[in-house]
Amino acid sequence: MRRTFATPIRAVSCLALATTLALAAAPAAFAQDAPAAAATADTARGVPAWGIASTDIPADPDVTFGRLANGMRYALMRNGNPAGEATIRFNIEVGNREETDAENGAAHFVEHMAFNGSTGIPEGTLVPMLERLGLAFGADTNATTSIDYTTYKLQLPRTDDKTVDAALMVMREMAGNLIFDPAAVDRERGILMSEAQVRNVPQRRQAADFIGAALPGARVGARINADVERIKNITAADLKAFYQGYYRPERATLVVVGDFDVAAMRAKIEETFADWQGTGQARAIYAAPLPAADAPPAIDSFVDPAVPEVIQLQRVSAWKPSENSLAAGRDELLRAVAAAALSNRINALTRAADAPIIGGGAGDQVLFRTARAFGLAVVAKDGQWRDALALAEREMRRAQQFGFTAAEIDETKANIATALQNAVGQASGRSSIALAEQLVAASLENSVRTAPAFDLAYYTAIAPSVTPEAVNEAFRKAWAGAPSVIHVSTKTPIEGDTGAIAAVLKNSAAVAVTAPAEAAAVKFAYDDWGTPGKVVSDTTIADLGIRTVRFANGLQLNLKKTDFEPGKIAFALAIGEGLSAFPADRPGLRDMLPFVAGVDGLKAHDADELRRVLAGKAVGLGLGAGDDALVANGQTTPGDLDLQLDLLAARLTATAWRPETQTQWAGVVPVATQNLRADASQVLNLAMASVFAGGDARLGLADIGALGGATLDDLRSAVAPQLESGALALGLVGDFDADAAIKAVGASLGALPARKARGDIAVPAVPPAFVAEPALRTLTHTGAADQGAVALGWATTDGNDLRDDLTRDLLAEVMGLRLNEVLREELGTTYSPVAMSYSQQTYPGFGYLTAFATVPPEAMDAAAKVMRDIAAELAAKPVAADLLERARNPVRARFDRAETQNTSWLGLVTDAQSDPAGLDRRRQRKGLLDAVTPADIQAAATRYLTGKAVEIRVVPQAK
Predict the structure, then answer these.
(1) For residues 254 and 63, what is the distance between their CA atoms, to the nearest angstrom?
(2) pLDDT tens-digit profile of 50-69?
(3) C-alpha to C-alpha distance for 755 and 490, rounded to whole angstroms
(4) 86: which DSSP letter?
(5) Is the peptide bond prior to 82 cis by the omega test (within 30 degrees of 0)?
(6) Domain spanning 58-273, CATH class
(7) Which range is least confidently modeled, 249-253, 604-608, 675-679, 885-889?
(8) Which domain of life, per UniProt (predicted)?
(9) Within a 10 A sphere around the Cβ of 473, how many other Cβ atoms?
């Protein structure tokens, strides 16, 4: 059975949606801004090439920093993850905040036009050119416009001269040679309109309202959502003027990280960009007005029936670039520790049955390099904003008056120390994408990007001074005794509005708070599993480098040692039959499982005690469901492998199923349901597979309202038997000592009572089947009236025939390219058409090929017709060879990339004993992919796309 540990189309978790605006603290995030203190006397400080001075902080010596004579910054770094590839980021310091009211939308529009015609690249040729090189549009070729910057992104599958030269040429064209043909602008306008419609969701409007309250008089909040009227009317001349005012070398940074010769890359950059000069007068970076420090608190409310009820208490202050000093780094660290400790307190409060909140967190945030905010956000249960606001007020006051305990500080310090220690051990396996993003951020913030070893040395030096007293002082300084903005989001208008909010705060302030109790030390309860299990089989699959071990109790252990990411181990434990054993008529259980696994803890430790026990350890206890197995997967380190294995054994034998977990779920579901229903694309993503399967709940959530009917008892009935007796297979991929790992597995999972050996999963009594009579299925959403989504699905089959499976994948890729050409580029109907082929090997005969797009209701007929026409076109004649290669090359690049990624091997390794056919699939897939011909694509289209399709439309709910 092929397992990828991810459903092809899937909404994010319900809890994540419910707490979209709750700000979780990230205690290790200070590393970029709080570098190490162990510099030697002869180490250069700061980044002289970028004009960044520092008296005591050296930059990462593995990065080559430079600046051209025209002022353009660049940073180059050789890195081998992924091997043979390179990540390019081209950043311009201009975003939505730079737009005047008359230009609202210009920054994002310019970003789109960068792909639509320049002096050296005619309109319509850029994306196909990159696809021929193996870059998929969206995945490998993309761009981002933020409030304060614009970044263009390329992921190069190779670093040969042809690919690198083409990529640098593309960036040079974007930098200074865009044309802004009026006809091209008009063609792109519809795509911008579609994107604005799709992104006009309650959460963005909520964020815009908060920023507007936090920064009154600034244009930042107003720029979070696009101005549709301005998009309709903005001209090519407007866009060109904006482009020339801001796209200038002195505001640009080019970052290239990957597997290449740095000196050669540097020479190419200098040759390509040396002649770039700004045109006309440079325009100034926007400086927002800030509230006076002694101004009375701003109180504001936001109302939308689809938003979670979020309460924010924030202290807003001016933002300034990094000071690049050791003292400033320590200040950042102390605030981060305080925020993390407060976040842990808040989330512990959610466990109580009468808790008015479902989540929350404290944080020290930068607001688009315009301001910074320190404070707390909590997500209330529906209708309980008053109690949630009072709770937030009291917890901030408790922290102000009494500070944090030694145990709270020690827990966070342990997490920071471990993160920094692991970063040193894992430095050579860092992701090129992550490194490139960090270097772009360093340029924007004028901060010194330091090496992991330096960060660890610095933290080790100052850790003794990170005391409760120091953290408490830093908290009080950052909080300054009170918020400067109080923002309350509710589903219905608040009677009395801001006066009612002020009254709640006044009444809460009259309630005395007490000092927090010092938590008692706890010993982990699950570290002795009895007599170690006996190994009864130990063989090696030589060509794939997979060692297969079987224990006497039936456990299959499969290992693959790699050097892709030093210091990291990817693990996956496959348990039982997974979703195939779930009831087909009980929706929501698969969505409920990850939430329950995250909050339920173990029998001997509730979630908060477990968090304290595991402080400073790189381990996880998550659980999800695939078609053929429950799956506990994640990453750990060689030093924490034993503990991770103990946790996996405890998951099997000591899942708690606490009654209070049901209470927490009941509080989350209404919030999550409203969030999901407000987004047409989420409604479609959750429902699609289930609708195609006639409503089978194992494949999706056809009715989001049914989520509230999922109970802990139902979930336990489906999951507990699999945990208790389901067949097991454990996969380990990464950096470990194989013999030591086998011994550790034998002492934990191998020591459990015997279970049946994992093999082919029995066909479910009632396997899903594609809906018998294709017809229109209409779903509804509660978002804006101009939002919607449409999908067509054609029945295919399962994935057992690899050649046919890969041909369908390529057919979907080709269809996606044609949808992009017609729906996006020619008609401007949508910015996000997608086609995909879904197959699996658990349910015989079930699979589908689908095309879908987010479109307004009035465009659905036309969009569906285009999808049908393209399906008919692909069946009528062989696809053009060039189009097939543009579809094939990015797939081939993904296959090549997968060879050097631990997580890409993990599913195959986990199933190495139970699914030996999967090994042959891995061996054969690139050869079979390359053998697919245009005639094969036509034959597949004729076989699968000429029948009637199931059509799904997600339309606005009648008001």
Answers:
(1) 13
(2) 999 999 999 999 999 999 99
(3) 51
(4) E
(5) yes
(6) alpha beta
(7) 675-679
(8) Bacteria
(9) 14
Q: What is the DSSP letter of 46?
A: B
Report the greatest alpha carbon distance in the chain: 78
**Cα angle: 85, vertex 33, 618; to 5 degrees:** 65
- Cα–Cα distance for residue pair 385/357, rounded to 1 Å: 8
Q: Which position has the higher pLDDT, 45 or 2?
A: 45
With a cut of 60, say whether residue 15 has pLDDT above it.
no
Contact 71, 250 (CB under 8 A): yes
Q: Identical fold at 58-273 and 776-878+933-956?
A: yes
**Is residue 676 very low, low, confident or very high in pLDDT (cuts 50, 70, 90)?**
very high
Bridge pairing between strands 569-575 and 535-541: unpaired
Mean pLDDT of 686-699: 96
d(CA 86, CA 65) in angstroms, rounded, equals 17
Residue given tokens 């191998």 in the structure block: 750
Helix (H, G, I), strand (E, B) or coil at 732: strand
**Spatial CA neighbour of 591 closest among 681, 709, 679:** 709
Across 435-450, average pLDDT: 97
Laid out side by side, the sheet with 371-380 consists of: 298-303, 485-490, 309-318, 371-380, 357-367
What gap in Å lies between CA 156 and CA 136, rounded to an integer? 10
Q: What is the rounded average pLDDT of the residues 381-403?
A: 97
Calpha distance 930→923 (Å, rounded): 13
Q: Please say whether the beta carbons of 315 and 447 come within 8 A.
A: no
Q: How confident is the model over 144-156, as a mean pLDDT?
A: 97
In the predicted model, is pLDDT for residue 659 greater than 60? yes
Q: Is 598 helix (H, G, I), strand (E, B) or coil?
A: helix
Kindly tell me the number of DSSP H helices and DSSP E strands found in the chain.
Answer: 29, 23
DSSP 795: E
Q: How far apart are CA 668 and CA 295, in angstroms?
A: 36
Measured between alpha carbons, how far is 65 from 671 in angstroms, rounded to an integer?
Answer: 47
Q: What mean pLDDT comes out for the span 900-909?
A: 96
- CATH superfamily for 298-427+447-509 is Metalloenzyme, LuxS/M16 peptidase-like (3.30.830.10)
Select from 221, 95, 89 the least CA-distant residue to 150. 95
In this structure, the dihedral spanned by the alpha carbons of residues 364, 367, 371 and 373, taken in order and rounded to 10 degrees, is -30
| Domain regions of the chain by residue span | 58-273, 298-427+447-509, 541-751, 776-878+933-956
DSSP 551: E
> What's the CATH code, domain 541-751?
3.30.830.10
Q: Which two tokens stand for residue 134?
A: 């193996």
| 3-class secondary-structure state, position 534 | coil
Q: Find where tokens 């076989």 sit.
A: 943
Query: Which of 406, 422, 321, 330 shows the shortest CA–CA distance to 370?
Result: 321
Please give the torsion angle defined by the CA atoms of residues 117, 121, 124 and 129, in that order, rounded to the nearest 10 degrees: -140
Going from the C-alpha of 466 to that of each of 104, 292, 424, the distances in angstroms are 45, 31, 21
- Dump the DSSP string for 147-187: SS-EEEEEEES--SHHHHHHHHHHHHHHHH-B---HHHHHH
**Residues, the chain, total?**
959
pLDDT, residue 306, reads 86
**What residues form DSSP beta bridges with 733?**
560, 570
Phi, psi of 21 (to 5 degrees): -100, 5
Task: List Cα–Cα distances, 484 to 163, 364, 407, 444, 741, in angstroms.
Answer: 51, 14, 30, 27, 53
Tokens 């162990």 -> residue: 38
pLDDT band for 773, please (50, 70, 90 cuts): confident
User: How far is 709 from 780, CA to CA, in rounded Å?
Assistant: 19
Which uninterrupted H or E stretch holds 514?
none
User: What does the pLDDT average to over 687-709?
Assistant: 95
pLDDT digits (tens, 9 = 90+) for 315-365: 999 999 989 999 999 999 999 999 999 999 999 999 998 999 999 999 999
For residue 777, give both structure tokens. 């299925």
pLDDT surpasses 90 at 372:
yes
